[in-house]
Amino acid sequence: MSHIILQGGARLEGTLPVQGAKNSVLPILAASILHPGRTVLQGCPHLSDVEASIRILRHLGCRADWEGGDLVVDASGIDRWDIPDHLMREMRSSVVFLGSILARMGWAEMSHPGGCELGPRPIDLHLAVLRQLGAGIREEGGCLRCTAQRLEGREITLSMPSVGATENAILAACGAYGETVLLNAAREPEIGDLQDFLCAMGCQVKGAGSSTICIQGRQPTRDVRHTVMPDRIVAATYLAAAAAAGGEVELTQVHPGHLSTVTAALHAAGCQIYSGEGRIVLRSEGRLRSIGTVRTAPYPGFPTDAQAVLMAALLRGHGSTVFVENIFENRYRHVDELCRMGADIRVADRVAVVTGVPCLCGASVRCTDLRGGAALLVAGAAAQGETRIGDIFHIQRGYQDPVGDLRQLGARIETG
Ligand code: EPZ
Fold first, then answer.
1. CB of 370 closer than 6 A to ligand 1?
2. CA separation for the pair 333, 196 (Å, rounded)
């Protein structure tokens, strides 16, 4: 499958269950090596990023296999503590393995993850929290060489609520002597899912979802079976597509509260939204209205990962909407591709002004990054004519079956 072909203009109708969350399962897979036994993950999405994590687990000496719909990890045989450069380059968020490898093995070695399409992606906060727990970290020649003969729990204040640094701190603290208290921790729901997984494994973690998380290290661990939480950004993506194309869709296996800032924005744009236990229904006539200013922020603020797909939904709206991207330096790479479809978007540094146009025209476009690619799906669903989307490997990092999902909702979509 090298590209996706979307015939726009069809209203989206139907019901769709939401896949498991990429940004939850990746730290959970890193956490699985804390236990020298079995982890069974139900509802684990089939994604290229998950396959990359599986390759890392196998490199470390773990077994990691799909058994039916479950992903089963056995970390009893772990015998390495390094992640080779070619595996790090596949997925920069592999840095979240650093804390768990240190906690389990006492050593860790990996190349610096480097930047990505969204910008430089520094890891200074990750390294700062690990050093405060007692890890020795040498950065030389683009490589991180880490030792942790004895991690000691302590109070740590994060200078900003970094999701990855919070996750790395939690995982390392699980291997530390005594209690660790994380202050100014990230509050994303995926951290709550990580906490639930760790507690099911026997670890003592509490406070996830708040800015203060406490970890009692070195607890006895046990085999664990865990169901991965639904992906709130995938849910936001399909709601944005229905909002843009018009129609009525119902998403199930979803936590409405996890994307309330997104549904509030779509409601302000003129959609009818119903949220119930594990389900969200959205009705839209297709032409939306502008919604003032959207500022991305750490959870519970508006998620940066939903910025591109909401922007795509508003391209045909009446009036102008201003986006302010406060999390990443370079997260408007999808704008040029959307403008090829007739969108009117002007960018100055972290601000993008979207002025609605009467219609979008299908075009040949290319994914620039994961969520920028998802935005092209949203715009293509609303455009007149055919949209051909290339470089879809970006989308496959985070969406299990975007073609099947959108087809199930009535889109005229195929792969080429
Ligand atoms: C996680 O990335 C997600 N990835 C991202 O999702 C998401 O956009 C981001 O959190 C924010 O919600 C995964 O969970 C795998 P951060 P992460 O550390 O952990 C700066 C997607 O599309 N920073 O909260 O890397 C950083 O440069 C992806 O699914 C430092 O300066 O996010 C960024 O500007 C994209 N130093 C900001 O903080 C550090 O040590 C937020 O980063 C770490 C981060």
1. yes
2. 35
Residue 69: pLDDT band (50, 70, 90) is confident
Query: What is the side-by-side strand order in the sheet with 344-348?
Result: 292-295, 320-324, 351-355, 344-348
Global confidence as pTM = 0.98
Nearest-angstrom CA–CA distance, 379 and 341: 8
Q: 143-147 and 155-157 as β-strands: parallel, antiparallel, unpaired?
A: unpaired
Q: State the Cα–Cα distance between residues 208 and 31, nearest whole angstrom.
A: 15
Q: Is 305 in the pocket of ligand 1 (CB under 6 A)?
A: yes
Buried b (16+ CB within 10 A) or exposed e, 100-115: bbbbbbbbbbbbbbee
pLDDT (tens digit per residue) in 372-382: 999 999 999 99
Q: How far is CA 64 from CA 35, 48, 76, in A?
A: 14, 15, 11
Q: Per-residue pLDDT tens for 113-125?
A: 877 788 878 999 9
Counting atoms of ligand 1 from 1, which one is nearest the CA of 121?
27
C-beta 318 within 6 A of ligand 1: no
pLDDT level of residue 1 (50, 70, 90 thresholds) = low
pLDDT (tens digit per residue) in 185-235: 999 999 999 999 999 999 999 999 999 999 999 999 999 999 999 999 999
Question: Looking at ligand 1, which residue's alpha carbon is closest to its atom 9?
Answer: 163
Which atom of ligand 1 lies at the shortest distance from residue 370's CA? Answer: 22
| Encoded tokens for 295 | 């500022």
| C-alpha to C-alpha distance for 259 and 270, rounded to whole angstroms | 17
Ligand 1 pocket, 164 CB below 6 A? yes
The residues annotated as belonging to the active site are 116
Cα radius of gyration (the chain): 21
Helix (H, G, I), strand (E, B) or coil at 362: coil
Report which protein residue has its CA nearest ligand 1's atom 38. Answer: 162
Q: Is 356 in the pocket of ligand 1 (CB under 6 A)?
A: no
**For a pocket test of ligand 1, which of 139, 233, 259, 305 has the largest count of ligand atoms closer than 8 A to its C-beta?**
305
The alpha carbon of 92 and the centre of ligand 1 are apart by a number of angstroms equal to 11
Q: Are 165 and 174 in contact, with CB atoms under 8 Å apart?
A: no
| Closest residue to atom 39 of ligand 1, CA basis | 123
